Amino acid sequence: MFTMGQLNRQWRRVVDRRLRPLGLTEATWLPLLHLERATGPMRQKDLAASLGLDSSSVVRLLDGLEEGGLIARAGHVDRRAKTIDITPKGQETLRHVKELLTLDRLKLFSGVSPAQLTAAFEVMQSIGAQLQSLELVEGSQP
Question: What is the pTM of this model?
Fold first, then answer.
């Protein structure tokens, strides 16, 4: 029987293998996805928080994305902060990533009925809510 953690690791390996020919890893395409989903230009510290990484790791990651022409960093009203924008090349790369992952998801879920998927997502949301409540309780205890 697979656990959620095992499924997650296996899916990440599939995605990494699939995107390797494009010169991408999860560390490079995931930040692009977060940037695309943002309501406006993100600051480096906001991206770090959304990825669950420390700021120094994100700076190195962004250096590589910028060298690859996938993002551009610009000054912010607060001169200590930098905002990050996806370049046209980054948008095209992300579009290609989404196409490939959509095909893989379709294959992955082809043997699962819509009712089973709905039930599975409901269970995962319930577990996620429980985990959040546990974090809140633990965070309030000394």
Answer: 0.74
